[in-house]
Amino acid sequence: MPQMAPISWLSLFILFSITFIVFNVMNYFCYLPKSPEQENEKKTFNLKSLTWKW
């Protein structure tokens, strides 16, 4: 029935919108930033490894 097509489009739009929002929320909250202590250790390690030995 052609009269039901707008309801189908609306339900698909809502379904994909919810899926998109849930996907983005999961990606946002699953990201774990590194603590500054780990970055400092990494920087000192890199600085030590970059010293030249003539």
TrEMBL record:
<keyword id="KW-0472">Membrane</keyword>
<comment type="similarity">
    <text>Belongs to the ATPase protein 8 family.</text>
</comment>
<keyword id="KW-1133">Transmembrane helix</keyword>
<dbReference type="Pfam" id="PF00895">
    <property type="entry name" value="ATP-synt_8"/>
</dbReference>
<feature type="transmembrane region" description="Helical">
    <location>
        <begin position="6"/>
        <end position="26"/>
    </location>
</feature>
<dbReference type="GO" id="GO:0015078">
    <property type="term" value="F:proton transmembrane transporter activity"/>
</dbReference>
<dbReference type="GO" id="GO:0015986">
    <property type="term" value="P:proton motive force-driven ATP synthesis"/>
</dbReference>
<dbReference type="InterPro" id="IPR001421">
    <property type="entry name" value="ATP8_metazoa"/>
</dbReference>
<protein>
    <recommendedName>
        <fullName>ATP synthase complex subunit 8</fullName>
    </recommendedName>
</protein>
<keyword id="KW-0375">Hydrogen ion transport</keyword>
<dbReference type="GO" id="GO:0045259">
    <property type="term" value="C:proton-transporting ATP synthase complex"/>
</dbReference>
<dbReference type="GO" id="GO:0031966">
    <property type="term" value="C:mitochondrial membrane"/>
</dbReference>
<keyword id="KW-0812">Transmembrane</keyword>
<comment type="subunit">
    <text>F-type ATPases have 2 components, CF(1) - the catalytic core - and CF(0) - the membrane proton channel.</text>
</comment>
<keyword id="KW-0496">Mitochondrion</keyword>
<keyword id="KW-0406">Ion transport</keyword>
<keyword id="KW-0138">CF(0)</keyword>
<keyword id="KW-0813">Transport</keyword>
